[in-house]
User: What shape does this take?
Amino acid sequence: MDTLDKISLALNRILTLIGGVFLVGMVVLTCSNIFCRIVWVPVRGTFELMGYFGAIVTAFALGYTQIKRGHIAVDVLINTFSPRKKRVLHIINASICFVFFALAAWQIAVKATTLMTTGEVTETLRIIYYPFTYAVSFGCLVLSLVLLSELVKLFFYKKEAKR
Assistant: This one.
């Protein structure tokens, strides 16, 4: 159990670091585009790059945000339930989310493979799509690993699985 948590945390820290680098790239690109637009002409392909970088930042932050309980949760109704009912609802929620994101990772990877075989590229900069699509798939897969870890905790460790 601890091994799964350690692997999950290490992967998420690495992905968060990479996502942070892409976020800094987005800031630099935005600032340079604004400056170049004022002085001369805008940076070519900014729209494409911002879309790619935003996808990486979002996908790579999913798992770490789940570990830190940073996702939005409306628990006004749940807080009125008994601890046993809360636990059952958390198990159901984690199960549904795990299955959803595992399937999403799989289907996004299938789409990435299709993009790779067809050789799809962007219009302006001619950048290939599939590496970014695989990265989003990997982000969803790592999130499903975090959710699996939570499920294991909920089933086997009654005291540790508090939310």
About this structure: The mean pLDDT is 89. The helical segments are 2-39, 46-67, 83-118, 130-156.
